[in-house]
Amino acid sequence: MDRRLGIAASILAIVLLLATAAKIQFAPWTSPVARAVEPRGPLSDAEKASIDIFDRVSPSVVQVAARSAANPLMEEGRAASGTGFIWDNDGHIVTNNHVVENANEVAVRFASGEVTKVDLVGTAPNYDLAVLRIRSVRQLPPPVALGSSSDLRVGQSAFAIGNPFGLDESMTSGIISALKRRLPTNAGREISNVIQTDAAINPGNSGGPLLDSAGRLIGVTSAIISPSGSNAGIGFAIPIDVVNRVVPELIKNGRVPTPGIGIVAANEDVATRIGVEGLIVVRTSPGSPAERAGLRGVNFTTGALGDVITEADGKPVRRLSDLTDQLEQLGTGHSVRLTVKHGSETRDVNVDIVDVSRS
Q: Active-site residue numbers?
């Protein structure tokens, strides 16, 4: 009996539920008219600033596609697809070297949709930079305004515009997360004073502009750290002060000298393990400025330590990038004053700076 009552109660509940649903569905207050749009207030100052940056800069940002034997179809979204931006009124475009490396043909697409082929003016693998030149275009967008990377502060706003995964005209924002990072390049050297940002940078952003809150160029986005290959909040940009030194050389000569003195140095980890503060000279190249200046490397017969460079023009040298950064600032054709320790002795020597890429 109780079981029959339970079944009856369940049936009654279902009937009541269906009746209620019917009343809701056909209730007289249900209207097929779309809801009214609520008017919004004015945009915030931060939103207006971001919109202004995008409107001003995005027309000067291009998508770069490179064709090579490995990628003959110039397909978007592949490793040979990246970003570039207008550098000057002569139609030069700056991008990353790794975007156009080994390319047989390169083309760019503007925000307007226009596509044109470009010529490769020069590359600087040591800085992961390349310069292209537009063959023809109906109307050249203005160059991106230049800023400075010497006065950047951790915590200030940063904006990246590019073509992540081939999705053109994408802008992301964040802050400058760190400064003075070191970025290895495919050429085996390190770029110093690299900018770290959490503005989303993904494959396809390479070679695009990193901007400050005034819309000025402060860096060229180049790499990310991510196990998956997608943005993980750690992106890097080549500082504009380096770019502004390298690009004019590429436009003028098609290449950039590699300032050096002709030494092979030990890794900083080696110096740390043996308790030495400074850059250990392993050996000097025959006929190099370092050899002529009397620098001595490790004695491999006795195992005795050679010279240790501790300063360059009065600035501390703790790793190779400290020395190369100073050499790049001085440039070839000049000399650098090195403070060198050998055992308990300390001495100063003047060493000429030459283009070691030609040796």
A: 98, 128, 206
